[in-house]
Specification:
It is built from four helices and five strands, in the order αβααββββα. It is of the alpha+beta class and about 160 residues long. Strands 1, 2, 3, 4 and 5 form a five-stranded antiparallel sheet that branches. It is elongated, with a radius of gyration of 29 Å.
């Protein structure tokens, strides 16, 4: 009995579910009517779209999901929702689609990393790589003037 009470108390202390993106209210979505509603109506009811289709500004996409942390701080998707609105060239709503996790396709994640220059330099390579980059005694990088009192012009007189 005590263990059940402690377990129930942990659910209040644990991580809360987080809403990511734009979870569209389904009651607001019902107010949009294909053939009569416009882009302005959609924006007023649903807000700005999460994104627009890459090659079609008339297709608005609202993406939202609810996630919650699991063991070892990995995220678990509890609910996912995608609403796709398609408008004609005059800005009138023509089609509405509601998609969910069931419509998603599995994606294989590749575990390798992209190599970056300088990512695997040894201690001595890093030490020797900085030789000659700084002026002796000044601590500033060598090269063309970068401003200072004479405005970065090598032959300009020094200001008092």
């Amino acid at each position: 009995m005590l263990a059940a009470g402690l377990l129930a108390a942990c659910s209040f202390i644990g991580p809360k579910a987080q809403v990511r993106g734009n979870m569209v209210d389904l009651q607001s979505l019902k107010e949009l009517v294909p053939g009569t509603s416009t882009r302005a109506d959609a924006t007023a009811l649903l807000g700005s779209p999460t994104t627009k289709a890459s090659f079609n500004d008339n297709r608005w996409i609202y993406i939202g999901e609810v996630t919650q942390k699991r063991i070892a701080s990995t995220e678990a998707v509890q609910k996912q929702q995608i609403i796709v609105l398609t408008f004609d060239d005059k800005g009138v709503l023509r089609e509405m689609k509601r998609l969910s996790q069931k419509n998603s396709l599995p994606v294989d994640v590749i575990a390798r990393t992209t190599p970056t220059p300088g990512g695997h330099a040894s201690f001595f390579q890093q030490l020797i790589g900085n030789v000659g980059r700084f002026s002796p005694g000044l601590g500033a990088p060598t090269g063309p003037a970068t401003g200072g009192l004479n405005g970065g012009m090598p032959n300009a007189p020094m200001l008092p």
